Amino acid sequence: MNQQLYKYQWIIVLLVALVGGGLCMDMGHEWGDDFAMYLNQAQCWIGGGMDALYATNKVCMDTSEGLLGPYLYPQGFPLFLSFFMRLFGLFGLQDLHLLYCLKWANYGVFLLGLLAYLRWLNGVFEGHWGKIFLGFVLIAWHPKIWEAADRLNSDLWFTALVILFFYALNTHFKGWLSRALTLSLLVFVASATRSNGVFLVGAWFVSEWVEYKKTGKVENRVVSLMMGTMAGLFALYADAGNGSNHWQLLKEIDAKTIVHNLGVYVEMAGSYPYWHIATIMKLFHPLLWLAVLAFWILVVVGFRKHNAEKWAIGVFVMLNFGLYVIWPSVQGMRFLFPLLPFLMVFFVAGLGSTWTNHGFPWLIRQNWIPRIFRNTQFAVGLVVGVVLFQGIMTSVFYTILDTNQAFSKDMQGVYDFVQSKVPIDRRISFHKPRLMRYVTGVETYKIATDYGKNTQGDEMVSASRGLNEAIQKLRENQIDYWVLKLGRAEKPVLPIAFENAEFVVFEVPPNKGSLTGSGKRD
Question: Within 337-485, where are the H helices?
């Protein structure tokens, strides 16, 4: 019975992760409108029209204020979604029910990818149950992973691809060609999902070099690496020209932003194992940095203890970390997802080494502590319990929190108005233009949506502007309808075409007239 429980405990871990992530999911989606482009591109894979979508979105991105997104996202994730769109379409799923099922498919595939991570952990920590269990749980049960289940973006899919690549890289194949083809395919799909997937080629080069230094055998390494390099470059070439005006961000790189970003990502990754606890530690900032420092010390210790594959992993982690640090647009924990499985391996290895050499010898000398608590299994169970408790806190919070903003009742009212009353050839200004265009089909831009904002809420404030300047900007871009969230100090003196509890839609007549003078407040 004990042996059977040992075999099936991994299924229990995944079932708990499935429930935890599922509790975080809501019908609909949050405001981040990347998912609208992913869905739009996935539909184009099914029904065609990718060129037209590119042209339309290019105009939107070039015309809108601020940096919203690329002309097209890399096609790896949209292609992935298109398979499930076809599958769910056979069952008649549409609209929000389809979106909800796509979230489940995205999260479910990620959890299946964790099986490869588990097998890899079994090889890395062979015979050390506690390290395998803790390393697995730190990814499968973490609250940030469960939160990500509620968002339809490429983070979890890309992380699963990276895990599969490193698992295949350290797996014995019967022939060199099958290994080269498998790794090249994973490089291609990862690079076609995220451009930084091409860094896997760097890890592959280092792995082959370490193996060559160990054995002195060249075999077919050069041919294999050429195949992998061509796969990565071809994926980048296929996405060339879709990057939009994000390259403008390169002009903003300076020493100040690099130092700031380095601190942000070091703290973020260092807080990962005790994420919610770190939130409390922020009240005592020196305490948080001591915890972060302890994390990175353990990572370094674990790196030193790791086998030869650490160099390939280290190259991939450092290349990605370096890219995030120099890129001026700071991202959240989701960008660290592909690196966390490897950081957790080093962290657990360092933690295990420290425990074996210092923690456990000290513990067994403490006779005042009951014997049942003075063992490694109890210590592992305690840490795992902390991770699970953090996940449960997040799941409970999300069951109460309504994360559906993009398809709320009031937002649905705006969509219904646009679809029924706004001619298809008119132009709309809305702070989530890709989402509005995806739902209604009407040409939408982000123009002057920051007017009258007192706080930075869902809309990013690019600069404060007066009403005259805002409406002038709208007219210059031939905007016919201006959709704003309520909560501003005053409403423009423009005809109101639609209004509900959360939004107001103004008509923007082409003729000039009085633009100010209203004192009406929301």
Answer: 340-354, 360-364, 376-400, 409-421, 433-440, 467-476
Q: How far apart are CA 189 and CA 270, in angstroms?
A: 29
- Across the beta sheet with 481-485, the strand order is 443-445, 427-429, 481-485, 503-507, 496-499
Structure tokens at 343: 């950081």
pLDDT in tens, 71-89: 999 999 999 999 999 999 9
Which residue has tokens 């319990």?
385
Q: Residue 479's CB: how many other CB atoms inside 10 A?
A: 25
> What is the chain's mean pLDDT, rounded?
87
Q: What is the mean pLDDT of residues 465-489?
A: 86
User: Residue 444 has which token pair?
Assistant: 């939408």
Give 117: exposed, middle or buried? Use CB within 10 Å, 0-12, 13-18, 19+: buried
SS3 498: strand
pTM for the model: 0.91
| Cβ-contact 149, 196 below 8 angstroms | no
Question: Does residue 398 contact residue 474 with C-beta atoms inside 8 Å?
Answer: no
Residue keyed to tokens 């429980």? 5
**Widest distance between CA atoms in the chain:** 87
Q: From CA 380, how far away is CA 229, in angstroms rounded? A: 41
Quick check: 190 and 199 in contact, CB under 8 A?
no
Query: How many Å separate Cα 485 from the centre of its chain?
Result: 27
CA atoms within 13 A on the CB side of 149: 29
Cα–Cα distance measured from residue 77 to residue 73, given in angstroms and rounded to the nearest whole number: 8
Which among 469, 427, 432 has a CA at the least distance from the CA of 448? 469
Cα–Cα dist 307/5, whole Å: 30
E strand intervals along 67-201:
none
| Dihedral of the alpha carbons of 273, 276, 278, 284, in degrees to the nearest 10 | -160
CA distances from residue 275 to 65, 80, 223, 343 in whole angstroms, order as listed: 35, 30, 44, 15
Q: Is the pLDDT of residue 4 over 60?
A: no
Share above pLDDT 90 across residues of the chain, in percent, rounded to a whole number? 64
Structure confidence by residue, pLDDT tens digits, 241-277: 776 555 666 666 778 888 989 999 999 999 999 888 8
Q: How far is CA 246 from CA 67, 91, 152, 242, 352, in A?
A: 6, 39, 21, 10, 43
73 closest CA partner among 45, 31, 109, 101: 45
107 touches 156 (CB < 8 A): yes
Conformation bin of residue 494: beta by default, left when phi > 0, alpha when psi is -120 to 50: beta
41 Cα distance to chain centroid: 18
Mean pLDDT value of segment 498-515 = 79
Q: Measured between alpha carbons, how far is residue 269 from residues 163, 202, 323, 334 in Å?
A: 18, 22, 15, 11
The answer to whether residue 283 scores a pLDDT higher than 90 is no
Give pLDDT, residue 212: 87
Q: What length does the chain have? A: 522
- Cβ contacts of 187 within 8 Å, gap of 6 or more: 165, 197, 198, 200, 201, 204, 228, 231, 232, 235
Q: Which tokens in the block code for residue 172?
A: 């014995």
